[in-house]
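$ ./design --mode recover --in tokens.txt
reading tokens...
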């Protein structure tokens, strides 16, 4: 009897897990979209700045993407080289 009840418990747990994942998916998509838009806005703003303004904040044009995207983007881009 314990085998049957354990199997039923596993099935209901798996079903609720899938429903939980489906409920969270739209929230994650929205959060990812908002993050992407914020990064795009920051990139556009920094790229529109003059070289002097960038120098004042300690950036060069070649550092803009890494400054916005963070270390992870740079590591992904150069991971194939080491």
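writing sequence...
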């Amino acid at each position: 009897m314990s085998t049957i009840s354990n199997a039923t418990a596993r099935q209901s747990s798996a079903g609720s897990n899938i429903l939980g994942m489906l409920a969270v998916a739209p929230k994650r998509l929205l959060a990812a979209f908002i993050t992407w838009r914020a990064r795009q806005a920051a990139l556009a703003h920094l790229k529109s700045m003059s070289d002097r303004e960038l120098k004042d904040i300690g950036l060069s044009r070649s550092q803009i993407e890494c400054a916005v995207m963070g270390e992870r983007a740079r590591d992904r881009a150069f991971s194939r080289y080491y």
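exit 0
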